[in-house]
From TrEMBL:
Biological process according to GO: ergosterol biosynthetic process
Keyword annotations from UniProtKB, A to Z: Lipid biosynthesis, Lipid metabolism, Membrane, NADP, Oxidoreductase, Steroid biosynthesis, Steroid metabolism, Sterol biosynthesis, Sterol metabolism, Transmembrane, Transmembrane helix
Protein name in UniProt: Delta(14)-sterol reductase
Entries under Gene3D superfamilies matching the protein: 1.20.120.1630
Naturally occurring in which organism (per UniProt): Terfezia boudieri ATCC MYA-4762
Domain of life: Eukaryota
Membrane topology recorded in Swiss-Prot or TrEMBL: Multi-pass membrane protein
Record GO cellular component, one term: endoplasmic reticulum membrane
Annotated compartments: Membrane
Length: 427
């Protein structure tokens, strides 16, 4: 047991992360309030405040759990019935590849169109759906927690069936708890053969729910103040664009480390379906409770920051994806490369010559543009920039180790040519 090399500090780390991420989703509800975020009562006595809040709130509500299950089922149905090409993923350790039906953009556009229709024809901001989502936010947090724990446990048990399915390297440790957390099976497709659960969860129900929660928060602001502030519009546009962009570039998700290398366990299940929609919508929830007016200069500044971040993020990711799928395309054919013994080449000029993860920098710059519109009245809305920096720093180290294993000494040569990890000249 002692000789196994664990990530995330092994089983104790898995336990701490599992409990903390769940608690954090609840804290987003109890700490963002109209009378301060966090409220003065929390600052003077945190434990008493939380004890009182918990004892006076009902956490569980069966209809909300049922509604989430219906929503999840609807996204599965949409993947099945909407058209989309069948695309092969990367070649796996067994020499084969899986096929993925790509129609995430159609799925999210269908859901957003249905919601737009309901809003237009059934009461605008007062449509029962928006009011329900706002009123039952705490119940939704519980529903997501319960659903994720159940799904992770089901996936763990399902992965114990006899072969020939592929297991993720990290998920075969001697600790069942750690394997449950990190994920045993690489590409589980239980029950429905067309449904690759990991890529489905990574791109569909959680990301779309994030935007639905943002709209619900916006509708709350409209109901309570009679208007929507410029800050709220901007955060909605930025985050909505980010999600639609990921759906438009759906094939790119098939080459991310989550899909190619990691198992599908509680970390990703919870990250995709609970953590992402609840914590990434903190900014709009705060703005719904505390409207902020930016004015023309503020608007232009955050537009510029988001534009810069998006440009770096999209241009660098697209350059690598194009290079990996069609290296003779004129847009990438002129770039300098390093031939590796593994057979594939590594870019050493263009975006990927500036730093080894310049795409992370672009994503992080965008993170600032999503938080700054909330002003400086609370540190809580800046949770995303801090968490995301930690996630990206850790992810860069994990990818670096994975590439070292993949490319051997060639990766050392590449590291000497492209010296910076994320931010050229700094890190
Ligand atoms: N909003 C969010 O919460 C999150 C967003 N993201 C975003 O997801 C995007 C994808 O990130 P991620 O999956 O971590 O990794 P990357 O898209 O950065 O891909 C890493 C892989 O790219 C290949 N590669 C590395 N260097 C080169 C090079 N010089 N030339 C060619 N190929 C190279 C390697 O794989 P190989 O050589 O095998 O092709 C490596 O394993 C990022 O933009 C990130 O910001 C990620 C996590 C969370
Ligand atoms: C603390 C905890 C449980 C963290 C889980 C991390 C997850 C929230 C993220 C891991 C990788 C992700 C990716 C995206 C969203 C966040 C998670 C799930 C992503 C889908 C966002 C949109 C991008 O365009 C992307 C498709 C490149 C990206 C892929 C990785």
């Amino acid at each position: 047991m002692a000789s196994h090399k664990y990530e995330f500090f092994g089983p104790p780390g898995a336990f701490v992360v599992t409990t903390s991420i769940s608690i954090i989703t609840y804290l987003t509800y109890f700490l963002l309030t109209p009378s301060g975020s966090p409220p003065p009562a929390f600052l003077s006595s945190p434990l008493t405040y939380l004890q009182t809040a918990l004892s006076t709130s009902s956490l569980f509500h069966l209809p909300t759990l049922a509604l989430f299950l219906a929503y999840f089922g609807f996204t599965v149905l949409l993947q099945y019935i909407l058209p989309g090409p069948l695309v092969p993923g990367v070649v796996l350790a067994n020499g084969k590849h899986n096929l993925y039906k790509l129609n995430a953009l159609y799925t999210s556009l269908t859901i957003f169109s249905l919601l737009a229709g309901a809003t237009l024809f059934f009461g605008g901001a007062n449509w029962v759906g928006w009011v329900y989502l706002w009123d039952h936010h705490l119940h939704l947090i519980t529903a997501l927690n319960l659903f994720c724990i159940s799904l992770s446990t089901f996936l763990y048990i399902y992965s114990l069936r006899p072969g020939p399915h592929l297991l993720a390297e990290g998920g075969t440790s001697p600790s069942p708890l750690f394997n449950w957390f990190i994920g045993r099976e690489l590409n589980p497709r239980p029950l429905l053969s067309f449904l690759d659960l990991k890529s489905f969860c990574e791109l569909r129900p959680g990301l779309t729910l994030w935007i639905i929660l943002n709209i619900s928060n916006t509708m709350h602001q409209l109901r309570t103040t009679g208007s929507i502030t410029d800050s709220m519009i901007l955060v909605n546009l930025f985050q909505g664009w980010y999600v639609l962009d990921s759906h438009f570039h759906e094939p790119a998700v098939l080459t991310t480390m989550d899909i190619t290398t990691d198992g599908f366990g509680h970390m990703l299940v919870f990250g995709d379906l609970a953590w992402l929609p609840i914590t990434y919508s903190i900014q709009t929830r705060y703005l719904a409770l505390n409207p902020v007016h930016l004015g023309p200069l503020g608007v232009l500044s955050v537009l510029a920051i988001n534009g810069l971040g998006y440009y770096i993020f999209r241009a660098s990711n697209s350059q690598k994806n194009l290079f990996r799928t069609n290296p003779s395309d004129p847009k990438v054919a002129h770039l300098k490369t390093l031939q590796t013994k593994r057979g594939t080449k590594l870019l050493i000029s263009g975006w990927w010559g500036t730093s080894r993860h310049i795409n992370y920098l672009g994503d992080w710059v965008m993170a600032w543009a999503w938080c700054l519109p909330t002003g400086f009245g609370t540190p809580l809305t800046y949770f995303y920039v801090v968490y995301f920096a930690i996630l990206l720093l850790h992810r860069e180290r994990r990818d670096d180790e994975a590439c070292e294993r993949k490319y051997g000494e060639d990766w050392g040569v590449y590291r000497r040519i492209v010296r910076w990890r994320i931010m050229p000249g700094v890190y």
